[in-house]
Amino acid sequence: MKYLDEYRDSRIARKVVDEIRRVQTKPWVIMEVCGGQTHSIVRNGIDDLLPNGVELVHGPGCPVCVTPLEMIDKAHAIARRPDVIFCSFGDMLRVPGSEGDLFTIKSEGGDVRVVYSPLDCIKIAQANPDKKVVFFAIGFETTAPANAMLAWRARQDGLKNVSLLVSHVLVPPALAAILQSPQNRVQGFLGPGHVCAVMGYEEYEPISARFHVPIVITGFEPLDILQGTLMTIRQLETERGEVENQYSRILGRDGNKPAQKLVFQVFQIGDRKWRGIGTIPKSGYHLRPEFAEHDAEKLFDVAQIDTRESEICISGEILRGIKKPKDCPAFGTLCTPQSPLGATMVSAEGACAAYYAYGRHLKKNESVDIPVHSVGGVA
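Above: the chain sequence. Below: its structure as tokens.
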């Protein structure tokens, strides 16, 4: 298809890889921020195409993966209530909490429903006035406008039986936290294209300047990622640390102003806890006080939740770019998509799920059915 296949052209990919090889003189560690980029990298074997000394590590760009266990357990506690219809996108249903997941709760009689838009909850609430409809509002800035619209509509329509369990997190503070960590290995970032389509990339510029680190806002197709990698390496090799926009065909510096206006009408910025990382100051959205009657955390008694993380799972180190899925002793054995120990294995954007789906857990003489993409095999 035009405008899609052209970003998967193997001939152009060879040329970009050759240019990376020509430009690169030192070893570099680059983190792709978005889980969609991670899956594209693993699916197309982009990390294997790059020359020795250029390492791609995977960041905290999967919104499901960074949702803290406490919040997942709160969701489960609310979903078990007989007076609740608990609504979520499908990728949260199999994420393990301390005890089971939303599918288990549904099988035990809980009214758990998959929705394809937050606004589906409006119709559900109108059809079930005797029930409390709760939407699990997670994600980065990308999903914040649609989730904000649900809260705004519920308030405008006077729907008292609609609330949101909010666990929104923000990318820029996470990048700063990674760069400040004593264990940090990251020298440059492939920035999150979808997030910046909403919010723009102005707020990344102070981070780039403060830490003197390249941040290249990058798309999701193979050639996007290869070009973003080349742009990052060019900066590193010339000792520059700037924000550049590889994804210019989609987004600009300012982002989507109407979406931003809605987000800040509904949400305010505050501290958030990230799974595997801990609390990052001013790294998440919370409902403003005027939306308190639609705040599920305030409406339900779920303040005290005792959590139990897996002692084996190393998803926190994977999300910080310190380790990779194959470094986990449980990867592909005790932890699989059928029996996940952590969200990075079950989420559609998780790094462990990507490695498993595309055969990184198999031995050399084993194989897995992998979708054919035109970039695969370029070397």
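The chain has one domain: 1-358.
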